[in-house]
Every structure is written in structure tokens, then in C-alpha cells.
Design a protein that fits this description.
Helices cover 40% and strands 17% of the residues. By secondary structure, it is of the alpha/beta class. The strands form 2 sheets. Strands 3-2-1-4-7-5-8 form a 7-stranded mixed sheet, sandwiched between helices. The protein is globular and about 50 Å long.
């Protein structure tokens, strides 16, 4: 059985999902794909199910009723991946803002010793294409804010392009992960570090979507802003066993 599973949450990604699936399966490593679709009314789930006939035993889908949040989608995917004993588990967006070719670099980083590899927009300058300046500044300073409040040194705390070794997801108490929006990404990185795992950032070029609609909202940003403070306070009263 292949050792790598890519998890992609979707909501209304019909313009992108088939191209993304075909691209991942064209890479020179045998990745499996798990799509978690939140009842996309545009038929994203139907496209995936049609392609399952072409890619049997490689392409999987979990369908949920309605938008339930990024974090809960990934938690479902993580538990699924651990139950099938994949060694490397990836988070990635469907809209090509993350270059699928970089999956190979993330996997290599974990194979060479990292427990979590982050595709980072800010570890070497600012590598963002087609974002308006206000969005770039909001994202960049959000990570600076996270570093200030939590003390962690990650340059791109909200990054959503990540590879985990299975032992990380087996160690973290996934049911204790609270946040559902972009704060979820911060919480996962913070918790991984608190458990003593090795986290490595590698530089990527992030390109804003050209098809479909962004899911960012002020509610998601507010959750992240306030959630970081809450997360830091809660961590004072919580024990984090060392990961093996």
C-alpha cells in the first residue's frame, strides 16, 4: 500500500477539482487522495465520484452535509489516514494556490527527519503571487502575532500546505483540537511543537486561486485572532506528552 495520503477539503470547487486530482496522480510518487466534500451544491462531489471509476483504490471521498469547517474536515481526514496506516499525511487546498509538485518536497523533508513539514510563504521573504497587498499584510502579520503571543518561531503559522508523519497525528489528541477556521492551522502547529516534534518550514510560492471563490471571511479571521490568546492560556494548564 502506498505510504502517502493527500487530504483536500472542498466546497464548490468544480472548476479545480478534476485538474487537481489528475495532477496529483501524475506525480512521480504514488499518492492517494482523500477528498472531503461539504455537500458542494455545484456538484464537486459528483465529479470526484465519477473519477473514482478511473482511479480505483487511489481516490476516496467522504461527503458531509453542509459547510462544517476546515478544521473538522481535516480531523476527519486525519483519523481516516491513521486508521489506514499511511506514513505521510498531507493537507492541501484544491484551488492550485499550493503547487502539487511541492508535495514531493514536503514528503522528502519528513522522510529526512522532520515530523511536520510546512510549505511556507514567509520563511524566505514573502513568496505570494496575485494577492492584494492588504491580504498579504494581514497574513504576514498574523504569523508575527502568533509568534508574539505563543513564543513559537514558525514564520507561516497559518499555512495550509503541510505534511505530517503518522506518529504526530497519533500523539495529538485530535478531539481536543478546538478551532475550525484558519485558527485550526495555528493550533495544529502549536500543539505539534508542544509535543516536542520536529517542525521544518520549506519555502514555496503561493499563488492565489484563478478559479472559484475564496472561503476567507472576517469571522474566520476573528476566530484566529482571539483563538491564539485562548490557546496560549489553555496550554498553561495542559500536559503535552513527548512524541515518540
Amino acid at each position: 500500500m502506498p505510504d502517502s495520503l493527500v487530504i483536500i477539503p472542498t466546497y464548490n470547487e468544480k472548476e479545480n477539482i478534476e485538474r487537481m486530482i489528475r495532477k496529483v496522480f501524475s506525480l512521480p510518487h504514488d499518492f492517494h487522495l482523500l477528498i472531503i466534500d461539504d455537500g458542494s451544491p455545484d456538484g464537486t462531489g459528483n465529479i470526484v465520484k465519477r473519477l473514482q471509476a478511473e482511479f480505483p483504490e487511489k481516490l476516496f471521498i467522504e461527503e458531509r452535509s453542509g459547510k462544517q469547517g476546515l478544521g473538522t474536515a481535516y480531523i476527519l481526514g486525519f483519523k481516516w489516514a491513521v486508521s489506514y496506516k499511511y506514513d505521510y499525511i498531507f493537507e492541501m487546498d484544491a484551488d492550485f494556490s499550493h503547487n502539487p509538485n511541492d508535495l514531493l518536497r514536503l514528503r522528502e523533508t519528513c522522510a529526512e527527519g522532520a515530523d511536520m513539514a510546512i510549505g511556507s510563504r514567509y520563511v524566505k521573504g514573502v513568496n505570494v503571487v496575485n494577492w492584494p497587498m492588504n491580504r498579504v499584510l494581514m497574513s504576514y502579520y498574523a504569523s508575527a502575532y502568533v509568534r508574539l503571543i505563543t513564543g513559537i518561531e514558525i514564520k507561516d503559522a497559518t499555512a495550509g500546505f503541510v505534511c505530517y508523519k503518522r506518529k504526530v497525528l497519533q500523539t495529538i489528541r485530535l478531539d481536543k483540537i478546538k478551532f475550525v477556521g484558519y485558527a485550526f492551522q495555528i493550533e495544529m502547529k502549536y500543539t505539534t511543537l508542544k509535543h516536542g516534534f520536529k517542525v521544518v518550514e520549506i519555502p514555496i510560492i503561493f499563488t492565489d486561486r484563478t478559479e472559484g471563490v475564496s472561503k476567507m471571511s472576517t469571522r474566520i479571521f476573528r476566530e484566529a485572532f482571539l483563538g491564539v490568546i485562548q490557546m496560549r492560556i489553555n496550554s498553561v494548564f495542559r500536559k503535552y506528552p513527548e512524541g515518540e
